[in-house]
Amino acid sequence: MSRLPVSSLISPPEPKPLGSFNQSLSPCASQEPSFENNTLPPISADRKRTQSEMDLPSPPVTPNKKPKSSLEDQNDRDASTVSAKDPLLFAPNEAGVASDQPLFGPQLVPSSTAELVARHIESRRRIVKDERKIPALADYQTTIDCVPKVGTLYNRNPYAYYIQERHYLETTLSKCQRAGSQTAPKFQKIAPAPPKSAPAISKPRPKRTPKSTPKQRVHDSFGTATPTPKPARVIGTNRDDTDYRSLPDYCPPIETLRGNTKGLKADWKGQMLDLSNDPDRHELDPAEVGLAATLRLSCATYLCSKRRIFEARVNALHIGKEFRKTDAQQACKIDVNKASKLWTAYDRVGWFKPEYFRQYL
Questions:
Q1: What angle, rounded to 10 degrees, do the helices at 299-318 and 336-349 form?
Q2: What residues contact residue 287 under an 8 Å CB cut-off, 6+ apart?
Q3: Structure letter (DSSP) for residue 30
Q4: If you compute the radius of gyration of the chain from its CA atoms, what whole number of angstroms results?
Q5: What percent of the chain has a predicted confidence (pLDDT) above 90?
Q6: Could you write out the DSSP letters of every residue in 178-244?
Q7: pLDDT tens digits along 285-307
Q8: Alpha carbon distance 329, 339 (integer Å)
Q9: What is the number of H-type helices and E-type strands within the chain?
Q10: Do 349 and 260 meet the contact criterion of CB atoms below 8 Å apart?
Q11: CA 83: distance to chain centroid?
């Protein structure tokens, strides 16, 4: 069995303690910053730019390059020995391409700042039609002549400059907060929507109150006579429906129905009317009695409607007009459906033929 060496039992060395920071440089040491001997250095003379250099357009910014390693430097030196210069993009003798002509054409550089401003104003006039929205030449000149003095103002009194800027920032923030609170829309609170699983709540219908019976008129004394009640109205028994003797009789003779009584039939819902004891039964043919009983018409009402229909037929022959079902409905004073049944039955037996009415024309 091999023994462990003595060096494996020795603990590793302790790490070096971290460097301590100066408490005076900590941002929590004081609430106000110290501005003693804290001024911005002036710009050196070699870094200052002349006015002519400021007028020229600035060159494009080159991308940051990483420092090359020794291996990359050696590769670049080897490549430079193989090829001393880059290959030509275009041959000098190629037709249509000049060797001294720039690739993107001549670049027109403005001779002065005034010419550049004039071009910009002219381009704005082509886009914006309103002259009031185009800045004047004096505004451009003021902007060009503007020289930043932030560094000079800060170097005069750094603490006073800090107080001024801090006051301006707090004032601006308070104005923005007040303006935002005034223009903020006020939303109305709405009730939450009921859950989908809950059944719809139906409103109870109000109970209908029964109408009260109208009060009777109270008389002043007992001597006044009580009003007599009005007689009950009897439906279907007025003079116009039953007084067939007052109407002219243009009906065809009953003898024309001999052997042709099957046409005087009609379909009607309800029980047939009993006309066995009707006083005007003898005025009708037995087939007409069955038709009147089916339509639930008394013999007098049937005779009245029959005479009105054939009176209208004679009037239609006088003016040379066809006699239709609607004419029979307008002539009778009974239900229009019953009048239509009468017209259909009379038409089936041929009672509307003109030869039955020539004697009345």
A1: 70
A2: 257, 261, 264, 265
A3: -
A4: 61
A5: 19
A6: HHHHHHS--PPP-PPPPPTTSPPPPPPPPPPPPPPPPPPPPPSSTTSPPPPPPPPPPTT-SHHHH-G
A7: 888 999 999 999 999 999 999 99
A8: 5
A9: 11, 0
A10: yes
A11: 73
Provide the token pair at 91.
Answer: 């041959």
Amino acid at 304: C
- Tokens 């009379």 identify what position? 346
Tokens 């002509």 found at: 101
Q: Which residue has the higher pLDDT, 274 or 34?
A: 274
**And the tokens for 217?**
């008129």
Pairwise CA distance, residues 301 & 174, whole Å: 99
- Per 3-state DSSP, the chain is made up of helix, strand and coil in percentages (nearest 5) of 45, 0, 55
| CA 251/CA 333 separation, integer angstroms | 17
- Condensed to tens digits (0 to 9), the pLDDT of residues 241-282 reads 788 888 889 998 888 887 777 888 888 888 898 998 999 988
Token match 């403005």: residue? 110
Q: Average pLDDT of 132-154? A: 79
Residue 122 three-state SS? helix
Best CA proximity match to 303, nearest among 278, 268, 266: 278
Contacts of 323 (CB under 8 A, 6+ apart): 312, 313, 316, 317, 352
Q: What angle do CA 127, 133, 139 make, to 5 degrees?
A: 110
pTM of the predicted structure, to 2 decimals: 0.37
What pLDDT score was predicted for residue 106?
Answer: 57
Max Cα distance, the chain (Å): 160
For the stretch 78-120, pLDDT in tens is 655 544 556 666 655 555 545 556 666 555 555 577 788 888 8
